[in-house]
Amino acid sequence: MPSEDQRADAQPPLGRADAQPPLEPADTQPPLEPADTQPSLGPTDAQTPFGPVVTQPPLGRTVGAATYGELGHHLMETRGLEWLHGANGDPYALVLRGLADDPYPLYERVRELGPLYRSPTGSWVTADHAVAREVLAHPLLDVRAADGWPVPPQVVSYGAGQALELDRAAHERLAERWQQVLGAEHVDGLRAYAERACEEVLDGLLASRARPVPGAPASDGHAASTGLSGKPTRQPTPSAPATGERTPDDHATPTDPASPPPPTAFDLMTDFARPAAVATVAAVLGVPRERYADLASCCERLAAWPDALVSAQPPTRVRGVASGLADLHALLDSRPAAADGPLSSVAGSADGGLTDGRLADGATARYPVETLLCAHGAIAAAHLVGNAVVALLSRPGRWRALCAEPGLIPAVVEETLRYDPPVQMDERVALKDVELAGHHLAAGSHIVVLTGATGRDAAAFAAPHRFDPARAAGGPAPLALSGGFHHGPVAPLVRLHAGAALAALAHRLPGLRQAGPVLRPRRTPVTRGPLTVPVTA
């Protein structure tokens, strides 16, 4: 069983990054204004139910411009404050610590504190569906301060021009480019890409675990598997003892060809959900098949980005995002001029048609749509599939009902987005003074929407803690993957891919069942999905 540290650092094997490329030179990153690196006490009247506000100022420069020592010291102090506030009972600080397999009891503690409460971390936090909906739509709330940089307690920045940190105005300009392909009214045109990706991953998976045919050439006990990277790997077949020790079946007679085949055992996430999601994104971006493994490696490192912005992550993961960005841009630069992908001909220019005037020397946001699909879309799609399957397999009959009636799949996807979404948290910063839920929030205030909690608000949903795809239509929509910004170009494709993946599993593996405990990663308060789900079919 992995240790807590191993689970904190665990990343899905989307591809290996055996050699980390150097980060961009420090002088290519616009420096932030110098900041006091010591934890700061909030205003004297900034009292909370769990003590005064004590927060760590953001790192005084971008991740790429900081030395490893500066970054490590900053993350260590930030992590220490998360533990301090958690020890004093603040439920939001406990969410940031990310040590609970099930964060929903913590969300209920947040809800008990009212529709909007001040955490000693410095954030204003809500689990209320109505307040959250107002926050996500509020025109005076953005992802960064008016100057484009983080505010306490936002942890790090990769630069104001990077995809997950673009402001509202930038996203509105960018939408003109991606909506014609990725908009909700057009994304159905990409269904064939998602369906083909899922079928091909399943083909490889099932072929690698097929029962040997009597009379066929002897196997060495290993089979090819496409894994998450899309690159064939060698894995022991279920019939071969991994240790090499003799088993009672070593001298058994050949299997009767007429007997039922043995169960197909695999890991849902490692062997299907993540590689299928990467394959869908790769196809949409026009990445050649021989580069799928490289794209998977980029997606693996970029998956830590959403969590790194709001909670202290290990320095290697924080820096891994920067190297993943550099490698992704190089990969996209190397695509053939006639790349076969629907997005490559629409938003594939190096700047995506977007120039952010705040950046030094007229610098542009490089490949913003492609970066969002890789950093946010691939992992969200994989987690949405994983969370849906775990919920379906947790009760006898749910999976069989889906297999019998595939028309339920869209309802399952929406119910999973309400019940256990792949994105649990969104953040905003007040550009000016605002009034929310009876509180006056000054300009620069940091607001956190626990979107994972809003789906279980009893004021909005009946029996909110029950997974029920047959839930009556016409109720409030789930807030996960809503609110525009970086969710805009990602949400329609994530939904589409999840539906295609569930359809492929239901058609090909109607006997799917869970074969062991679900293992979940640590220190991922924003992204939520299984690390491993052992299954048989």
Task: Itemize the secondary structure elements and their pairings.
Layout: H1 4-9, E1 40-41, E2 47-48, E3 51-52, E4 54-55, H2 68-87, H3 91-97, H4 104-112, E5 117-118, E6 123-126, H5 129-137, E7 141-142, H6 168-182, H7 191-208, E8 222-225, E9 233-236, E10 265-267, H8 268-285, H9 292-302, H10 305-310, H11 315-333, H12 368-393, H13 398-404, H14 409-419, E11 426-430, E12 434-436, E13 439-441, E14 446-449, H15 451-454, H16 491-508, E15 513-514, E16 534-536
Parallel strand pairs: 6-14
Antiparallel strand pairs: 1-4, 2-3, 5-6, 7-11, 8-9, 10-16, 11-14, 12-13, 15-16
Helix pairs in contact: 2-3, 3-4, 7-8, 7-16, 8-9, 8-12, 9-11, 9-12, 12-14, 12-16, 14-16
Features:
alpha+beta, 537 residues, three-stranded antiparallel beta sheet
Strand content: 5-15%
Please outline the major beta sheet: 5 strands, mixed
Text of the CATH class of the domain at 100-196 and 269-536: Mainly Alpha
Q: Count up the helices.
A: 16
List low-confidence stretches. Answer: 11-37, 212-255, 347-363
* Span of the ends, CA to CA: 24 Å
User: What shape does the CA trace take?
Assistant: globular
The CATH superfamily of the domain at 100-196 and 269-536 bears the name Cytochrome P450
Overall radius of gyration: 23 Å
